[in-house]
Design a protein that fits this description.
With 132 residues, the chain is α/β, with parallel strands linked by helices. The chain is 41% helix and 20% strand. It has a five-stranded parallel sheet with strand order 2-1-3-4-5, with helices on both faces. Helix 2 runs parallel beside helix 3. The protein is globular. The N and C termini lie close together (11 Å).
């Protein structure tokens, strides 16, 4: 079974670097990228794309923050109950940090970009989903 991984970053460098690392992981993962949480939310709400198994999101974006969009996604009627979320950001507001630390949705936090070193944490999340 192929897992779907979505990442949301509002900067071109982040989109490029994250996509490159994820595609080199050589796993059976369908990867989709978005430069806006609002775009992703609208597509999911209209059922234009399936809900992902894994989401990686920047926190500080215009419109929805990464934390807000992940929570909204989990509350949608057709949401994926096994979705695993990862946050990446150099700075996180205390309120968002508390949600990240206490919610079962969030499975990791990275300083900025996904790197070969922290990709293993994400891939472990994929492996858990495949086993379920």
């Amino acid at each position: 079974m192929e897992s779907t991984l979505v990442y949301i970053l509002d900067d071109d460098t982040g989109l490029f670097m994250t996509g490159r690392v994820l595609r080199r992981s050589n796993k059976n993962i369908e990867i989709k990228s978005f430069d806006s949480a609002i775009k992703l939310h609208d597509l999911l709400e209209s059922n234009a794309i399936p809900h992902p198994d894994i989401i990686i999101s920047d926190v500080n974006m215009l419109g929805f923050t990464g934390v807000e969009v992940i929570i909204l996604m989990s509350q949608m009627e057709n949401s994926n109950p096994n979705m695993k979320a990862f946050i990446q950001s150099a700075t996180i507001k205390p309120d968002d940090q508390e949600i990240i630390e206490t919610s079962e949705l969030f499975h990791g936090q990275f300083e900025r970009y996904v790197t070969p070193e922290n990709i293993e944490v994400i891939l472990e999340g994929v492996e858990e989903l495949v086993v379920q």
